[in-house]
Design brief:
Elements lengths: L1 E5 L8 H12 L2 E4 L5 H11 L7 E3 L3 H10 L5 E5 L6 H9 L2 E6 L4 H20 L5 E8 L7 H9 L3 E9 L2 H8 L10 H25 L1
Parallel strand pairs: 1-4, 1-5, 2-3, 2-4, 5-6, 6-7
Helix pairs in contact: 1-8
């Protein structure tokens, strides 16, 4: 079992979009911790549109989260979609994660949002006595952008963050497929599929590397 928690205390950074497409990439189970239930509702639309639904579990408490962990199979990928807030449930999902993915934009406002999230990661680390860091994913980047100095400087200055190699560009196909309750794999857009495939491979490799470090 691998637990991929998509988390950031800042809202509107694309956590649900990333989680949705990761569920498509890994054919995984979604744990919906967001009180807005975006992915739960999108999954209901899949059923209405005649598409094969994902396994989506609405999680509202730490006890429900722990119960879902106990019932998960060893071969299962768990994609945890969190809301843009900080509470005990989100912190539990972060503590249990094999990898934490934090989508972020290349702008100065990210500096403050990521600093706040770093403080939370430090607090969780102190509570569980285990090192925690998050993989920062540049999301919704302009199609021709190559300068990501704001995000790079944040990641270089904080031991809580590791910058991912994958970059997700700002493509309308992501919104189009999501609004149709589809993942990017149900489109014909080669570039977007390549980005999510790259993200999948990088996540797999980072999980493997983390396991090796613990041995």
């Amino acid at each position: 079992m691998a637990i991929i928690t998509v988390a950031h205390t800042k809202g509107g950074v694309g956590k649900s979009m990333i989680s949705w497409n990761l569920a498509g990439a890994f054919n995984g189970t979604i744990l919906d911790l967001d009180f807005q239930r975006t992915l739960t509702r999108n999954n209901e639309l899949r059923k209405q549109f005649g598409l094969k639904p994902f396994k989506v579990l609405e999680i509202s408490s730490p006890d429900e989260f722990l119960s879902a962990m106990k019932k998960a199979s060893l071969s299962e990928y768990i994609i945890v979609d969190t809301g843009g807030f900080d509470d005990n449930l989100v912190r539990l999902a972060i503590a249990y994660a094999n990898i934490i993915i934090t989508p972020a934009f290349e702008n100065n406002s990210e500096l403050f949002g990521l600093q706040t999230f770093a403080d939370i990661l430090n607090e969780i680390q102190q509570q569980i006595n285990h090192e925690i860091s998050s993989c920062v994913l540049i999301n919704r980047a302009y199609h021709n952008a190559t300068n990501f100095e704001v995000i790079k400087s944040i990641c270089n200055s904080s031991p809580k963050f590791r910058l991912m190699n994958t970059i997700i560009r700002d493509r309308s196909i992501y919104r189009k497929t999501f609004n149709a309750a589809q993942t990017i794999y149900e489109s014909t857009n080669f570039q977007a599929k390549s980005e999510i495939n790259s993200l999948k491979k990088e996540i797999e490799q980072r999980i493997v590397n983390a396991i090796k470090e613990c041995i």
